[in-house]
Amino acid sequence: MSPDCILVEVRELALDKGAAVAISQNDYATGKPLIAAFAPKGFVMCGLLDVGAAERLGMAAVRVLGVASIEELLEREVVQVTSRARELGIKEGMKGKEALEKLS
Q1: What is the CATH number of domain 3-103?
Q2: What's the longest Cα–Cα distance across the chain?
């Protein structure tokens, strides 16, 4: 299968203190990616994350912008966090991978 035909990419990410699972899926209609990485305490997600909804649900969630791949999700800076994520030491400006480490 060619890379253009891949519907979903699922990858385990090794972290210093554990592991996480990253998922990337391109929207069929627009071709825009939906990318997220999940750790035991919460998740890091692309710009499609509704931080307000995650906040209302009490989730530890982190938003990064301008990502087209799992690698970019890990390298980009955090732009928004929920209060639960902030309690875990996550703040705006840190890299997605740093946030994911704190969520593991």
Answers
A1: 3.30.1980.10
A2: 43
